[in-house]
Amino acid sequence: MQNQLQAIIVSKQTSRWHRFDSQQAINEAAVQRILAAAQEAISARGRFSIVLAGGGTPKSVYGLLRNAQADWSKWHVYHNDDRCLPVDHVDRNSLMAREVWLNHVAIPANQVHDIPAELGPVEGAKAYAATVAGIDTFDLVLLGLGEDGHTASLFPGHVWDDSLDAFPVFNAPKPPSERISLSARRLSDTREVMFLVTGAGKQEAVDNWRNGVAIPATVIAPATGVDVYTFGVELK
Ligand SMILES: O=C1O[C@H](COP(=O)(O)O)[C@@H](O)[C@H](O)[C@H]1O
């Protein structure tokens, strides 16, 4: 397995870049780090809170977690965004995570917190803001990167209200146009962030990010910095 590490600072964000040379290598490294973060959190605080990325990139990592050994009873699962579609729609991030992983492990049902995106952007965002309001600093936030540089449902050219924990999204350039997202501030309130970035389609966004262009991914700025796990993009 190859993991070449470089660190760069973009505005307030410190990013550590990890390059893997196969899909298997990035998946295994991500799973190892997630399980280690869970163990550390459970030993220190008796619980582990993780915020999941949606989209296609994390699916194979979630598939491996399904067969992992972990103290699932201590896991508390949240989502960084979801699409305003019926609960059983194939494009719901919550459905993907449940089908591939969460329905197959022993996390208590009341510790899996889907975004109620089926209520629509305004009501769903209000409800999810209330869900995360009482939650302390997350332990681990997983994030993806869109080809246009978006992360969660923070899209280029959009303005979002960082005073809110979760906010409604309209006119998203990637369908569906209506979504709900945690805010950049809430996503940054975490002990650790891991971005998963795979495929040549993400090259331009990665180049922009590393060259200091202010794409949405650069606004995620926890005190501990962010780790970006990559496969299939060049780190120029
Ligand atoms: O729409 C979304 O896109 C991003 C990236 O998705 P990917 O399919 O390119 O991995 C994802 O992180 C976000 O959660 C999702 O809603």
From TrEMBL:
Q: What class of enzyme is it?
A: hydrolase
Which Gene3D superfamilies does the annotation name?
3.40.50.1360
Quote one Gene Ontology molecular function term.
6-phosphogluconolactonase activity
Please state every residue range assigned to the domain named Glucosamine/galactosamine-6-phosphate isomerase.
22-225
> What pathway does the annotation place this protein in?
Carbohydrate degradation; pentose phosphate pathway; D-ribulose 5-phosphate from D-glucose 6-phosphate (oxidative stage): step 2/3
What does the record give as the reaction this protein catalyses? Answer: 6-phospho-D-glucono-1,5-lactone + H2O = 6-phospho-D-gluconate + H(+)
**What is a single Pfam family found in this protein's UniProt entry?**
Glucosamine_iso
Q: What Enzyme Commission number does this protein have?
A: 3.1.1.31
User: Cross-referenced SUPFAM superfamilies, in alphabetical order?
Assistant: NagB/RpiA/CoA transferase-like
Tell me which InterPro entries the record gives. Answer: 6-phosphogluconolactonase_DevB (IPR005900), 6PGL (IPR039104), Glc/Gal-6P_isomerase (IPR006148), NagB/RpiA_transferase-like (IPR037171)
Q: Which domain of life is it from?
A: Bacteria
Q: Alphabetically, which GO biological process terms does the record hold?
A: carbohydrate metabolic process; pentose-phosphate shunt
Q: Could you tell me the keywords of this UniProt record?
A: Hydrolase
Question: Can you tell me which family this protein belongs to?
Answer: Belongs to the glucosamine/galactosamine-6-phosphate isomerase family. 6-phosphogluconolactonase subfamily.
Q: What does this protein do?
A: Hydrolysis of 6-phosphogluconolactone to 6-phosphogluconate.
Q: What is this protein called in UniProt?
A: 6-phosphogluconolactonase
